[in-house]
Amino acid sequence: LSPSNGTASTALTNYLDTQYFGEIIIGSPAQMFNVVFDTGSANLWVPSQSCSPLYTACFTHNRYDASKSLTHIHNGTGFSIQYASGNVRGFLSEDIVMVGGIPVVQVFAEATALPAVPFIFAKFDGVLGMGYPDMAIDGITPVFDRIMSQDVLKEQVFSVYYSRDPQRIPGGQLLLGGTESKYYTGTFNYNLSKCTLFCTEGCTAMIDTGSSFITGPASSVSVLMRTIGAVELAEGEYTVNCDLVMSLPIVAFHLGGQAYPLTQEDYILRQSQFGEDICTVTFRALDIPPPTGPVWILGANFIARYYTKFDRRNNRIGFAQAV
Ligand SMILES: CCN(C(=O)c1cnc(C)nc1NCc1ccco1)[C@H]1CCCNC1
Question: pTM (2 decimals)?
Answer without folding.
Answer: 0.95
